[in-house]
């Protein structure tokens, strides 16, 4: 990125038009003689030479404002505000000001010697240092603050000098001045988030995330051994030539471990009494200026072992034993949620199962800590979501308790008999309901099976349609019943509903729009759901478990011209009150399981699908194409000569008075059984136009053979 990113140069601090330039051009401008005179004048004025203080300050401001500058941290186009940012290359600016004069040269040399320093030079005042360093990995708008904090914290620790937090602005400008000894290192090492002192390899840096550890404050005495060990593990020792580096690293870690500033300063002054006290106090002030880093590490996180009296972490086996003595766990394979019930003196609470919540997890963790187990919530949750909890399927458990079917009582037939169809076709309803119900059990037990049909009850309000569906599930399984009222379009949440319920009822099905009905049909045949749950990090792959049913008040609700084989609609006049009926759920589900195990066919074959489509026509919304064809055309009879027409010709004939298209007409002609002949110009259909007399006497949906051509037409 160093070779491709061109920082934006501005003619002055007032300028707003960026001009891209190379790092080499900036380096030439810094080390050349172009700004030597202005830089010397500025520093002379800053030293108070030849002018009163007020005049000198005003002249310094004018010089600085008119000097060219560059923005090193972002790619700008068309301006220099945040809205003009087009990218974050990964170069971060550090502004080190207020360096004591007696350690300035030492600090500058330390910055230049550090392998991360890409560009470093004296500022216009001659009393500060400007540094550019690069981050490893992609830098974005979201993680720029963390990248800035990482680089600036590193140089604060390196120099022991407080950083200028105003540079945190990504569009901050760096004034170009004269420094013949400026450093330019094209192959500088990139900074890593994990390269902060005190961090183990691979350990996540809480400082980058802005997290702070809560709890009692850490004392300097308690932190001393760990702090000095970490610094010395980095190869830095309290010896000649590295005194300041050693002290600054120690105080930096004291800040991260949450030791109060006054206590850490007093500790350092006492421990390093042979070093200049003023420098120690200045170093402490600089390190503790990094307020975002205070208390972002715990001593326990960097303890090498438990031989120093510190309590060791609880093992997995210890946590398992503790959980087993407090509660029973199981993983619900329908809801994909962990469930628990309390255990008292080794005896589990009867029927006390409840979903695991954050409150329960936190309470369990608190109990562990009170009992002396050193465990953290992350490892506790990892254990809870492992195979530690046995799998449990609610329907399978119910079937095991129900026992086998008696082989005699037709529980499914008795349940179906509670519904009274309007056409008195109870046998057809019995068969359709039986297939649908067995399909519901099959879909719940086998992840490779989906119930492809939707049972629909249409009738007046208050006739127990919804209640009938609710009572199809026994009380212990009724929590796996869900209803969807057509108050909005089907959403991703509805997809997850069909992975964690046994039965989903779509109420007011007759008020659904065509697009929603088509979406529902597509959901019916979906085998798996591949979506990311709300607040989840990853997509999940879950089987479609639920069977669908629906209720409505209006007879005509089907809108698909291509066929409605997914629907099992029935108009009902009455339903026996299911709330007062004595439904034998054990026998009902045992019979369904018996039928399933004995190869009962709950799916439909091709010829049965055609019968379904025919039966479902009375539930279809008006079809203008079908009605017009029935009214104006019929099939040829015997040796009668017909006429060949195209679907487009029929559309042209009636399209002026009603909305039609050739696809709708073609589908209607095919459903009505007209002969189609394929030609190179398209499909043509053999029809006979009805006479006026035929049109006056035809009944809706009547068979063509009931209306032979009149004698005048033969």
TrEMBL record:
Bias type Basic residues, positions: 210-219
Domain annotation BT4734-like N-terminal: ranges: 63-184
Top-level taxon of the source organism: Bacteria
Record's signal peptide: none
Annotated region (Disordered), positions in chain: 195-224
Stored InterPro entries: BT4734-like_N, VapE-like_dom
Stored Pfam families: BT4734-like_N, VapE-like_dom
Domain Virulence-associated protein E-like stretches: 411-619
Protein name according to UniProt: Virulence-protein E N-terminal domain-containing protein
Species in which this protein is naturally found: Parabacteroides merdae
């Amino acid at each position: 990125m160093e070779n491709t990113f061109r920082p934006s140069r501005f003619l002055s601090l007032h300028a707003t038009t960026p001009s891209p330039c190379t790092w080499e051009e900036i380096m030439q401008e810094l080390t050349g003689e172009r700004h030597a005179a202005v830089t010397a004048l500025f520093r002379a004025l800053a030293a108070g030479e030849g002018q009163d203080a007020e005049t000198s300050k005003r002249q310094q401001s004018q010089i600085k404002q008119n000097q060219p500058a560059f923005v090193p941290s972002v790619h700008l186009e068309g301006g220099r505000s945040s809205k003009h940012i087009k990218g974050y290359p990964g170069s971060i600016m550090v502004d080190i000001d207020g360096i004591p004069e007696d350690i300035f040269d030492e600090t500058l040399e330390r910055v230049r010697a550090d392998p991360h320093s890409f560009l470093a030079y004296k500022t216009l005042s001659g009393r500060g240092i400007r540094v550019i360093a690069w981050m490893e990995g992609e830098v974005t708008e979201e993680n720029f603050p963390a990248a800035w904090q990482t680089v600036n914290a590193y140089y604060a620790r390196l120099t022991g000098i407080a950083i200028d937090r105003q540079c945190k602005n990504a569009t901050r400008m760096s004034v170009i001045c004269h420094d013949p000894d400026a450093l330019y290192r094209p192959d500088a090492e990139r900074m890593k988030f994990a390269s902060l002192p005190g961090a183990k390899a691979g350990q996540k840096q809480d400082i980058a995330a802005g997290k702070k550890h809560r709890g009692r404050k850490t004392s300097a005495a308690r932190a001393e051994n760990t702090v000095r060990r970490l610094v010395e593990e980095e190869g830095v020792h309290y010896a000649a030539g590295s005194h300041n580096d050693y002290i600054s690293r120690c105080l930096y870690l004291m800040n991260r471990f949450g030791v109060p500033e006054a206590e850490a300063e007093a500790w350092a002054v006492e421990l390093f009494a042979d070093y200049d006290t003023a420098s120690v106090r200045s170093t402490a002030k600089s390190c503790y200026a990094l307020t975002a880093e205070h208390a972002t590490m715990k001593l326990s996180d960097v303890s090498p072992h438990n031989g120093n009296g510190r309590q060791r972490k609880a093992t997995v086996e210890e946590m398992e034993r503790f959980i087993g003595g407090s509660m029973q766990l199981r993983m619900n394979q329908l809801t994909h949620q962990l469930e628990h019930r309390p255990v008292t003196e080794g005896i589990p609470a009867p029927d006390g199962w409840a979903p695991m919540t954050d409150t329960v997890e936190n309470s369990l963790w608190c109990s562990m800590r009170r009992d002396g187990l050193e465990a953290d919530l992350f490892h506790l949750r990892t254990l809870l979501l492992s195979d530690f909890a046995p799998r449990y399927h609610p329907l399978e458990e119910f079937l095991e308790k129900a026992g086998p079917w008696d082989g005699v009582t037709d529980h499914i037939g008795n349940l179906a008999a509670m519904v009274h169809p309007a056409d008195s076709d109870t046998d057809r309803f019995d068969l359709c309901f039986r297939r649908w119900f067995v399909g519901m059990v099959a879909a719940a037990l086998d992840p490779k099976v989906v119930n492809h049909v939707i049972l629909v009850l249409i009738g007046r309000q208050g006739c127990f349609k919804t209640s009938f569906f609710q009572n199809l599930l026994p009380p212990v399984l009724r929590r796996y019943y869900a209803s969807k009222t057509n108050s909005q379009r089907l959403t991703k949440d509805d997809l997850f509903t069909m992975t964690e319920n046994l039965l989903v009822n779509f109420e007011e099905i007759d008020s659904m729009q065509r697009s929603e009905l088509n979406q529902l049909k597509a959901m019916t045949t979906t085998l798996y759901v591949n979506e990311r749950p709300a607040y989840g990090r990853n997509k999940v792959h879950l089987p479609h478990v639920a069977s669908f049913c629906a209720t409505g008040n209006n007879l005509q609700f089907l809108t698909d011209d291509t066929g409605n084989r997914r629907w099992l609609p029935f108009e009902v006049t009455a339903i026996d009150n299911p709330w007062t009926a004595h439904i034998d759920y054990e026998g009902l589900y045992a019979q369904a399981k018996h039928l399933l195990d004995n190869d009962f066919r709950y799916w439909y074959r091709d010829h049965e699908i055609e019968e379904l489509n025919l039966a479902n026509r009375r539930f279809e919304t008006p079809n203008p194409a079908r009605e017009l064809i029935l009214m104006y055309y019929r099939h040829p009879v015997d040796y009668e000569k017909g006429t060949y027409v195209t679907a487009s010709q029929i559309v042209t004939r009636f399209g002026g008075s009603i909305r039609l298209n050739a696809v709708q007409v073609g589908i209607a002609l095919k459903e009505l059984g007209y002969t189609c002949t394929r030609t190179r110009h398209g499909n043509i259909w053999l029809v006979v136009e009805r006479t006026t007399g035929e049109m006056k006497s035809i009944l809706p949906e009547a068979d063509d053979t009931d209306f032979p051509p009149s004698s005048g037409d033969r």
